[in-house]
Amino acid sequence: MDELKVFSGNAHPSLAQSICDYLQIPLGKVDVSEFSNENIFVRILENVRERDVFIVQPVCSPVNKSLVELLIMLDAFRRASAGRITAVVPYYGYGRTDKKDQPRVPITARLIADLIATAGANRLLTIDLHAPQIQGFFTMPVDELTALSLLCQYFQKKNIANLVVVATDIGISKRARDFAAKLNAPLAIMEKRRLGNGDATETLNVIGEVQRMCALTVDDEIDTAGSLFNTVNTLLEHGANEVYACCTHPVFSGSAIQKIASSPVKEVVVTDTIPVTGNKKLDKITILSMAPLLGEAIHRIHTGSSIGAMFE
């Protein structure tokens, strides 16, 4: 694996280091810094000519800085004659803007795909895109991993009795159905609608039986936690005994942590596609590592092995 190199931007270096620990290789040396005028500077500190390069950089807070760092790193590695460049983007920022759902609005998820390709990426490795059609925005190969198996294994070990899996909205219902099948549990769906262009949502109804059951909500991300807060309260009002929650991407923006802390939710299980640090750490938040899954995927891409076989 001498030709394999993994590098990291400033968005999530600890995840990149954990991936390298799994692969038993050193983390690549690169200087990614910012001048006083806020211009980002990248300098690669080792030879990458004809190497198989993987750049780990989720597009997370600060979102725009993380994105520009990724684009400039891609350009730097392309100009340094890397053999193949894979953008490892565990969290694909702007993924929720994936269609024109009202007049005169952009499809930003497509724009980001074009920028990543133009900057020099030959391949994308990501986890649980907000919408499957985002893969079609790229003209390069896209490998989309899923955290559902990891989350499912965690709850299988807990062996929760009388469990019902709850999709937080209609859009996530297919993934939630697969999740429920793995746990051999029934499925319920929250009916909700978004209010305007903000983060506010209105929970309308629960489709399915949750009375006297332990509910487990499934979502791709938790942003402001407003939906989670309303969902938990609605499930308890409909007779659920207790509520657990899980998601892939812990965005936790705004007052999300305060809402989770004050919510009656028993436990929130997330992955480390986005760093959860400082005051975002709570006793009721459990973080599962995606490094082994990403590391194995990187190894398989590098050696030309099947990614799909990982989930069979």
Structural write-up:
The chain has 312 residues and is an alpha/beta fold. The chain has two domains: 4-146 and 291-311, 3-Layer(aba) Sandwich (Rossmann fold); 148-288, Rossmann fold, CATH 3.40.50. The protein is 30% helix and 26% strand. The chain contains eight helices and 14 strands. α1 (13-23) crosses α8 and α4 packs parallel to α5. It is globular and about 60 Å long.
Features of this protein?
312 residues, alpha/beta, Rossmann fold, seven-stranded mixed beta sheet, 30% helix
What is the distance, rounded to the nearest whole angstrom, between the alpha carbons of the first and last residues? 25 Å
CATH topology of the largest domain: Rossmann fold
Q: CATH top level of the largest domain? A: Alpha Beta
Topology, number of strands: 14
Strand order of the largest sheet: 10-9-8-11-12-13-14
Largest sheet properties? 7 strands, mixed
Counting helices, strands and paired strands, the structural category is alpha/beta
Q: Short description, anyone?
A:
The strands form 3 sheets. The chain has a 7-stranded mixed β-sheet, sandwiched between helices. The chain is globular.
Give the topology.
Elements: E1 4-8, H1 13-23, E2 30-34, E3 40-44, E4 52-56, H2 63-79, E5 84-89, H3 108-119, E6 123-127, E7 142-145, H4 148-158, E8 163-167, H5 173-183, E9 187-194, E10 201-207, E11 214-222, H6 226-237, E12 242-250, H7 256-262, E13 267-271, E14 285-288, H8 291-303
Parallel strand pairs: 1-4, 4-5, 5-6, 6-7, 8-9, 8-11, 11-12, 12-13, 13-14
Antiparallel strand pairs: 2-3, 9-10
Helix pairs in contact: 1-8, 4-5
